[in-house]
Amino acid sequence: MKSYFLRRSFRLLASVPAYVTLPALPCLLLASTSPLATAATPVASPQSADTSHIAAGHKRVGATPRRKNTAPRQGGSEEVEVTQSHTHRYLSEPTTVNVISGQELRSLHLENPKDIASFTPGVTATNAVSGSAPIFSIRGVGLDDYVGTNMGGIGIYLDGVFAPFPVFYTGQMLDVESVATEKGPQGFDMGRSTTGGSINIQSVKPSDKFGGYAEWGYSSYNTNRGRFAINTPITSKISNRLAFNYVKGDGWQKDVTTGARYGSQDLLAIRNLTKFTVDDTSSFLLNIHYTRDKGTSTSPQDLDTVANGGAGTNPNPHAVNVGNTPPQRNENGGGVSLNFTKIFDFGTFSSTTGVDFYRRNDLDNYDGLGTVAGGVRSDGTTVAGGVGTKYADYRWDDTAIAQSHDMHLRMNLAKILHLTVGVYESYDKIDGNYTSYRMDDPGSMVNLTNHFSQQNLSTGVYVNTVTNVTKKLDFIASGRFSYDERGFNGGSMYSAIGAGSPRLAAPYNATLDGPINHLNERHDYERFTGRVGLRYQIVPGTYAYGTISNGYKAGSYFAAPVLAPAALDYVRPENLIAYEVGIKSSLLHNKLILEGSLFDYEYHNRQTLFFGTFHPYANSNITSNSLTLGTIPRARTRGGEISSTLHNVIPNLDLHGSFAYLDAQIKSPVDSLPGLTLDPKIAHNSQLPFAPRFSWSAVARYNINFNRYRTTLQASYTWKDNMWAALGDSNAKTSKISSLGLRMEFGPKTGKWTAAVYVDNLQDNHGSTYSFTGSDGNRAQYIQTPRWVGCDLHYNF
């Protein structure tokens, strides 16, 4: 199947005109400009910015801005030099862009990509399982699949390389320059087509100056963290940057029966970047990276009694009941990428190629191993004197590999037309064995395994134009042709059957190690998408824009082990039409930065997770639960966002705040799915999953100067409304989540070193971040991390 995919891909690329296949620097490298990034953080190395697509009359296309080294300037790490290209890049983008700088990531203790959702308006992210399967959503657009084999409606890019599976972006973010979130359909100037947007994580690049930093921290639950980065010029044309991060700590969860700890950390990440300068206009950047995680997974709380294997009906926030099968995590992965950049008088060409792999072997435990002496089945029959074991565990055993190549050329034509042409290609594959150990009825244990291989091929050709109609008015027109193939070979089968009633031991008359369901098929899809819009400069530093765009996401498969045959099926591609108007303003020499937008999304065939019931046994009233992926024919999301930054308007005080409102509703009710009964049915105007109606965040930072030293006081607060994790599941509604953080930092004004103490989740809130109905029919929930107190020492050299 792989060879067939590649042949189709090569035939498609061969039909593209030669000029289209010229590569260019990934748009990810452009994402280092945000309100806070430009106003309150050190400027990163020159290699990270590509300004070749900015409008004429502001800066010559292809020119590389000269910026200072990443080391802090005299006066402290909060002082920066803001360049014209930085400010114009952020203001001129005709979409909402939220960026968190590397300095902010450190001060707010945002350790992995999902953490950024707390301080990015309209973004949600949560771990759906104990291991690696974070679910991202932007403005309610995403994929609610906890299994981890599917790409959501969000494109995640790590140093310009697309990460198709969640496992690729669960590792630590180390030595990061910025994280930029671009809202709305993307794929018109880089990468893969997405419906919801993209999140671009950019590392600090090598420079020709020797330097770096070392950091050590100690925090709650005996957690030690060590990290460093060292920049080394090797020759006049070769420079290298090595970054390292290690975390080791005890768990914050405690087993109610054994006293064992869970949720411990044992993480290692390392990355080496080498820049080869060919001449003044061209260079290569080699990225080699590795990460591994051998911590102990957290376990969700099963709200059943302790005697029946749960944590209790009103458990302590730290309490779990894991019993004799403790959760575990054993993950590792890495990869290599190569970026080539060439600057011409008329534009910039770049090519980025990457290959990544990831290996995962995790065990989730959803409740303890309780002993049940007898019981009553769902059909009313009694198991007298039988002793059974209650299971609700999952093993995730998979290997993923992904290859991608993006290349594009950005150029000016006749000084009024700014053109980007590019091509994208990726191939990814995941092979896995997902096993569910479950006990549906006393004395009848069912172990299910889905053994599968999934392959995805994506190719695309894109064009993006910006035409200067007048000195202040620009017309934007973009187009993309995408071709996707999805192949799946696998299905669920029994791996073991416990003692019990023969009538209950073989649903659908399946045999031991025999298939319950199986698919071996391939689907392909072609789609044209586009964007048109206007951008108007009201006054210098203030822009208004309006766009109409559409995006699509390829079809998916549900790879979880399931009893219901219909739960394993192909899910059709989804489509989104987006209308957005907004305004961006930078005033008082970038001391006041404001961004606001209103949007209206029309969703067709929204891929989502459904919870239904079915009858697995012939001639029986016994019902069983099953999750599956399906589509909502029509949905609509309307809302607005606003974010602002005040930098030093009041001397020594920085303020940043954001607010988002979402009204995400289902417009086509869903009464049933093939083979599953929805009870209750999904009604008209029901709320879409992962779409909190309100969310907001705020950060205040104040500097106190005395003699040669500086003390920085920081307070941060984030709040998100409750939301649904799956449709049709009454237990799948999360809590309202809030967290207050405080930090005090002390050090010389030169920024040579800093010492800090901090506390996160000061109120020690214990909201439910993800919840669902387990196989035993009880509510299972993950709880937000408790109050966390720590200190750290940071030294620049």
Structure write-up:
Residues 295-762 form the TonB-dependent receptor-like beta-barrel domain. The chain has 797 residues and is mainly beta. 4% of the residues lie in helices and 55% in strands. The protein has a single domain, classed as Maltoporin, Chain A, CATH 2.40.170. Residues 1-88, 370-390 and 499-505 have low confidence and may be disordered.
Could you give a short description of this structure?
The protein is mostly beta strands and 797 residues long.
Using only C-alpha atoms, the radius of gyration works out to 26 Å
Number of strands: 42
Query: What is the tally of helical segments?
Result: 4
Taking pLDDT < 50 over at least 5 consecutive residues as the criterion, the unreliable ranges are 1-88, 370-390, 499-505
Give the helix proportion (percent range). under 10%
Shape: globular
CATH topology: Maltoporin, Chain A
Largest sheet report: 22 strands, antiparallel, barrel
Percent strand equals over 45%
Termini Cα gap: 52 Å
Give the class-level CATH name: Mainly Beta
